[in-house]
Amino acid sequence: MPALPSKPSPPSSADADAETALLDIALDLLIEVGFRWLSPDDIARRAGVNRATVYRRLGSKQDIVRAVVMREIRRERDRALEQVERLADPADRIAYGFALTVMAARNNQVLSKTLAVDTPNTRESVTGETALVLAAGVEFTKDWLLKAAPNLPDAEQPAGLIARFMHSLVLTPDAPPYLTSESELREFAARWLCPMILGG
């Protein structure tokens, strides 16, 4: 499994604010026009900076898309962990963690709106970044699995299996198993995933 990109030295507060502002604009444009038509030049125009500034701070178009997607993944991870931590029962934590993650991905503004405006290129872009997205998804899934089962001996293996399954559910919802609602996802997890992870 590919490692997540290593983190550079923390930027200064001013640099971080500037990058955040550019990523916010990139997010808005991505939602408006989709992956295919996202342009660093348009980001620069909307931000009121020159093209070189965008490339210096964010990199190429591919780098920008990755940064936006990874930021959204981290935001959803934090939201899911906060909700999972409120539950006491390990099986509930697994079932809710699974359901919340799938629903969050399906309802995420980047994925849902770019699929709406440019379905083929959105699928191609997400599939093209499968290794990176799955690597992040495994780490994300492992976080809430360990909240449910702190003594799980090798959390990365079930996390990898679940992350691949969730990736499929999000991108191909019109194939079995048909799990469209949060309650259906929780019931599926309680029946099939919890016994696999917790035993019994």
UniProtKB/TrEMBL annotation:
Transmembrane segments: none
Coiled coil feature spans: none
GO molecular function, one term: transcription cis-regulatory region binding
Protein name: TetR-family transcriptional regulator
Domain HTH tetR-type: 16-76
Pfam families in the cross-refs: TetR_N
DNA-binding region: 39-58
Keyword line: DNA-binding, Transcription, Transcription regulation
Domain of life of the organism encoding this protein: Bacteria
Organism: Streptomyces fuscichromogenes
